[in-house]
Amino acid sequence: MELNPVQHDALVELLNIGFGRAGASLSKLTQQRVLLDVPTVAIHPVTHLTQSLGKLVNDRVASVHQVFSGPVAGDALLILDPLAAATLTELLTDVPSLSEELDPSSREVFTEVGNILLNACIGTFGNMLGVPVSFSVPDVDVSEVHTVLDRMLDSGDAFRYALIVTAGFRLRSSAVTGYVVIVLTVQSLKRLLDAVDRWQQTQ
Amino acid sequence: MSHRILVVDDSGLARRRARGILESAGFEVIEAEDGMAALERYFVDKPAVVLLDLVMKGMYGLEVLTKLREMDPAAKVIVVSADVQTSSHELVAQGGAAGFLVKPVDANEVLTLVRATLGA
């Protein structure tokens, strides 16, 4: 399954808007200017996900995972380097985070940040495409990339695709860069692309 | 007399932020970290306004809103959620909430809506 150039352009535009919203939320939370990279989007079978993410992040990551359901259903994952996650929680609490493992208090803060960012991104996406989604309670994890992905992909069918969105964001005065990954079933991906086709025809 | 506000959220960070905003304006704050606890606290402590998260473990916020309004049709509930979707805002309005605030919230918008809700 591949994106045609029109779908690719439309998805990047939608992601730009969704990530703009997420960036504004992060800026409001941290009181810092947030720099957003232009999102890149690609579709890979989930079996290639570990390899694709390995080019972007170190082996060990901090992640927030949320399942979303509705006509387009899937998994959303926010991934940061553990040190970046600790820095992010420090920015919100003014309390030094002493460990890359994130103590319970830091995990709580990171979970809420992930919840806000993933909702801003995917919720905006859903709004614009007219595809409402419901979110699960977020889970936080600090482990190797392959462990995070194995846990996320464990429960579903194997014939899934990852819409890999490398939407990097950086806080101007802090070394915090993160990525969002969206994993969809084949059926959901098809519905999403149909919605994208309808949306771009109205633009 | 200071009004009592019930903050319902499974995130400790969100509860602390709401408490800080509300207490600085002179409100009394009580907390619940899930839907069941929220229903209990509502009927024991009789808060003037409830700030309610949507996505929580156990009972979802929409269900809590429905139960609160079934048991007390005059319950004043403001939903505070990261959910930016128009469809969610419509569901919350249909459920009888007095308002919807999108996280992250700022102090002014919280206080303005809480005061307006108290005056309604």
Concise account of the structure shown:
With 203 residues, chain A is α+β, with helices and mostly antiparallel strands. Chain A is 48% helix and 27% strand. Chain A binds chain B through residues 21, 25, 28-29, 92-93, 105, 108-109, 111-112, 115-116, 118-120, 123-124, 126-127, 132-133, 135-138, and chain B through 10-14, 55-57, 81-88, 103-104, 106.
* Secondary-structure element pattern of chain B, one letter each: EHEHEHEHEH
Strand content of chain B: 15-25%
Low-confidence stretches of chain B: none
Biggest sheet character of chain A: 8 strands, antiparallel
Record field, number of beta strands of chain B: 5
Tell me the fraction of residues in β-strands of chain A, as a range.
Answer: 25-35%
Task: State the main characteristics.
heterodimer; A: 203 residues; alpha+beta; eight-stranded antiparallel β-sheet; 48% helix; globular; B: 120 residues; alpha/beta; five-stranded parallel β-sheet
